[in-house]
Fold each of these.
Amino acid sequence: MPKSTPTRRYNLTEGSVGLKLLALTLPMVWGVFSVIAFNLADTYFVGQLGTAQLAAMSFTFPVVMVMGSLAIGLGTGAASVISRAIGEGDHDRVQRLTTNSLTLSLLIVGIFILIGLATIDPLFKLLGAGSEVMPYIHDYMQIWYPGMICLVVPMVGNSAIRAAGDTKIPSLIMTFAAIVNIALDPVFIFGWAFIPSWGLKGAALATVIARSLTLIASLIVLHFRERMILWSLTCLRNCWDCWKEILYVGLPAASTNMITPISLGIITSLLATYSPEVVAGFGISSRVESFALIAFMALSATIGPFVGQNWGAKLYGRVHRSLHLSYLFCIGFGIFIAVILSATSAQIITLFDTNSEVVNTATRYLAIVPISYGTYGILIVANAAFNALGKPFPAVVLTLSRMVVLYVPLAYLGSWLFGLNGIFAAACISNLIVGLIAIIWTRRLCSLKPDQKSDSSMISPSKQPPLNLSDVRDKTPR
């Protein structure tokens, strides 16, 4: 298979580091925004059905978040090994890794579907669901569980596309899915024309249909546009070797993503000792926070392919430069967001709820925690870089340190000493400390490799140049 220098669109090992990161990140900002938007739309439309239906959907959130974390983990593992293979210029390996990452996700999701369908009653009763909501949970999960294939596989596929240096297509796919989901929600939930009212079943069906379109779209792009899928059978040993590489990064990444929601559940239980209004204020401020952090999440989704390709191509100077610029952006944008929220938080919160205690709680949160948004952005960027380098355990240690070692204990201590302000200060302090540790750790890890100039012309003739995906697409038989 021919190997040559990639086209400018896919080659992340040439050109301005800052401009490349900007071009990768901007499309992802819209993609992340669309995902958050359709999750909010789902909640809004289900809330129109009644309290019991909304409660039933709320009980499904932990399961949905666990499966989402699994999908993110598998996608992270796939993107890590694929981007480094692209940087090394080995297209055969890129195809094997992409194909085997998809088959691995199918195998794992198939097992979870069988387990999930068999354990709906015991699992959700363990979570505290009563008899009044269990019928609605059955309605939702009996559709959602089989539809997990359409959740996990496209996320892995889109991660493979991003590993090739293309963030526009995954962003367009995510946006299209969000539009379809939002459009189908009221039709299937409340009924329209010849379509009956399906209630909570309709919400699940709308999500599965939207996700199935992303499955089709990602496979079409991977096969026809990127030429990254093999349709021939590979030996079991080769398949197992690829799976181990993917899981070496993917399992720790999935675990890392599960730590945060579990820890936040503990914090929510602590806030519940104050009043329901405090919990509501915390929930609203968390939603506002998710929008404020979109740029950081988009950057973390794009730093992985950039670091992976350049590390695989042995262009270590570009890796150093990308992290340096990313950290500067996080600090600058974090300060900007903190100032904006400090000045406007009260007005923003009253759009959701006018209860004085709710507003007071949320504004206190948004006056304290955003001080640390810059270092929190650094943390999630550093975690993405560690995973891209094939070194997932620093990301696990940093996340555990932030949530389990610092945030939860400090929150209980702060609550005892200073009340709500102490809990929110605990989040701020945790972000600041672990963010600074992340900077030191990434610099130390990168320094383990000899620094080289970032100019692609400095590649040794004995090294294969980065992979030309466009050239492979043109010369691979259909």
Amino acid sequence: MPGPSSPRVVLGVTGGIAAYKACSLLRLLVEAGNAVRVVPTESALHFVGEATWAALSHQPVHTQVWDDVHEVPHVRLGQRADLVVVAPATADVLAKAANGLADDLLTSTLLTARCPVVFVPAMHTEMWEHPATRANVATLRERGALVLEPAEGRLTGADTGKGRFPEPEQIFEVCRDILARGSQPLLQDLAGRRVVVSAGGTREFLDPVRFIGNRSSGRQGYALARAAVVRGASVTLIAANVTLPAPAGVTVTSVVSTRDLRDAVLEAAQHADAVVMAAAPADFRPRTYTDHKIKKTDDRSAPTVELVQNPDILAELSHDRPRKDLVVAGFAAETGDAEGSVLTHGRTKLARKGCDLLVVNEVGADKGFESTDNEAVILGTDGSETVVPHGSKDALAHRIWDLVAERW
């Protein structure tokens, strides 16, 4: 249960159908040890009642500045909060927040908050794309608020499009990242930047059943995408055979093979300010593909598989950049051998690839792949070596973006 030193979170809930999903977000925040005050609008209570919010948060719930006037809640809640997250955020509350209106407890709290503020929009596509909403979102972002891009998918009724509420677990990951970095105003050094991140491991099929692949889970790439969103970037995530849920606020493109990955990365890079290649593309593929399952034979002989080399995406992108100021970073999963150490191989690869930064990490049975933690040395073409000690993949992701931002 939250204690006196627990992070203080204000969860604003507005009157959209996605309000019911905010119950899951509230539970995740509370179970993580945060002290959460839910501040719904009057409209939100048409979807989820006050008793539900109070029971899940273990805190009183109010909507108006006239409740508990002696505590001055419209001032105190914002002043004391470590994070304010409005989920869902309707077009109405985005407009009020952008224009400084304060006609209830939630909008008054937004005006007094000096901590990071996150808006999670959810509305019909036409409302999200309306010039008025886009202008309000731009205003809020310019002031330092984080306004997540809504997801695409099924909306109310039979409608489908952009405007869907992201999954609560992914919104929670954004909140956790922000709280871990302190209650200072959000670092928005990637605001206005368009970045591309690749993640996962490619597959090269021998037949309809079998493929050549690797153990990459995509966790590091997804951590990079989340961190970029938190820092204000517009993020395209190119995911190769990843089963993780899409991070909130990210545009995801799914690919299978190394050639698929190459095409997607090169296309996305045309309009990007940075590309971070965290995916593990297969270096080789079978020369031929059999359109039926390869059968075992009675003489127990094994088929011979001839391999050909796949394109080197990182080297191609680094040497043929669509923009001179494009920052390119790559990953090198290495093991030491008789010819050199992990760092020796990393330095050689940096020179050969031609990227600006190369994240070198040692891999093994219990290192790197499929783990929630990581450690690395980030090599720069300027001769720099940045050691990132063992820690979360989120921490490594932020250190990488630190170095990318420096190169702009």
